[in-house]
Design goal:
With about 160 residues, the protein is an alpha/beta fold. The protein has helices at about 35-45, 55-65, 105-110, 125-135, 145-150; strands spanning about 1-5, 15-20, 30, 50-55, 70-75, 85-90, 100, 115-120.
């Protein structure tokens, strides 16, 4: 699972985490903080899930109560439970999970380690190239590359000279 984090909507087919309250596109996953009105609007309209950036369990419990069927991605609090996915930073690797990656250097920390998903910062990862990597349209010189390795590859394109 690859998610892109950006401050604005990007024109790619990957799921995107954007700090908004009102979701108008099914590809968008709203990122909300400790704002009750924003959380309520995001939970009402979200289809893929909500990223809740908080260190308090109260907000996670409230989100679960309002939408028990929706996946709640928790960024900050160490909360586990049904339909709850914890997002950690790459430097605090603790096994199989979802990790927020700010740069390629942080992505290198995860080489060879199993991950469930990545939340990539779109400021340091080209969204269109990432989309091509996820769809398998980028060639890489390694054998049996994992997702992390494919994202670190320098893609090349063959050009035919006529």
């Amino acid at each position: 699972m690859i998610l892109l984090y950006s401050e604005k909507f990007l024109d790619v087919d990957l799921p995107q985490v954007v700090p908004i309250c009102d979701v108008h596109d099914p590809k968008l996953i709203p990122l909300v903080g400790e704002d009750l009105h924003c959380l309520h609007n995001a939970l009402k309209k979200a289809t893929r899930g909500v990223v809740l950036k908080t260190a308090k369990r109260l907000w996670v419990g409230l989100a679960r109560e309002l939408r028990p069927d929706l996946t709640i991605y928790v960024w900050g609090a160490a909360v586990r439970g049904r339909n709850t996915v914890l997002i950690r930073g790459a430097e605090e690797y603790r096994g199989y999970g979802v990790y927020y990656i700010k740069s390629r250097e942080e992505l290198r920390l995860l080489v060879g380690k199993p991950v469930a998903g990545l939340l990539l910062d779109a400021r340091h990862f080209d969204p269109h190239l990432t989309e091509l990597v996820v769809k398998g349209r980028v060639s890489c010189g390694c054998e049996r590359c994992g997702l992390v390795e494919r994202l670190l590859c320098n893609p090349y394109r063959e050009v035919e000279v006529l």
